[in-house]
Structure prediction request, 276 residues.
Amino acid sequence: MTEAFSVKQYLRDLKLPFCPGCGAFTVINAFLKAVYESGYTDLSKFVFCSGIGCSSWIPSPYFKADSIHTLHGRSIPVATGVKLMRPNLNVVVFGGDGDIVGIGLSHFIHAARRNLDVLVIMVNNMIYGMTGGQVAPTTPFKTKTTTTPYGSFEHPLDAAKLAVTAGANYAARWTTAHQNELKEAVKKALEMKGFRFIEVVSQCPTAFGRRAGFKDAGEMVRWFKVNSITIKQTKNLNEEDIAKKIVVGEFIQKRRPTLIETIYNTIKEAQKTEEN
Prediction:
């Protein structure tokens, strides 16, 4: 690469829709820098799918790329169709925690089980940010939201661990305070095949932060950094202590046949049988 990296290289000349301090800006920068460092000078080899929510606006219509804005929670099945028809393309899903593991949870589980050859990036702002600040599947225990004014009475879903259990080839979690680690995770995921999942714990100062008691986005990012622990560090803690932390790192990295490989191999075998 002779030219210096610039996000403008990959973005249309449109004003981004995110609130000041939103973590989506960090996610965009980390993802596009990973794309750049992976040798892609443009996004012609990519197709992006997204559902409904703040994070779903990351690729569409702002990336200079083909993108599909789907129904709420339905980005993964749409991505399945794209990858089946165009297996040579990098299919990337962007979505929030409500979109991916709320209404879209079943699709998420089965895509990991099938080892669908897509990269899913879930921006976890721990709340339904665009629709009014309601409690989400990932909202921390006892956190105040518009629908839980006395604090959430549910324990949050661990999406990264669920991806591992369901069969993902790659699963990682970082926060917006870990920009370099996030970029490197995206680079690694782009080089791999199969179902790859990256969770990014992200600040939402508008809907989550003020209700949770944070003064601004900067305080939230600092809290991410201080409150994060590595997977290795969890071995010395009990479940109650771990629940109060943000566990970051790579949860799994493996290789097994993808859904696309299996389907196309089955077609070839069937064709040979017919010829004989």
Remarks:
- The chain has a mean pLDDT of 95.
- The first helix runs from residue 24 to 37.
- The two ends are 50 Å apart (CA to CA).
- The chain has one domain: 18-275.
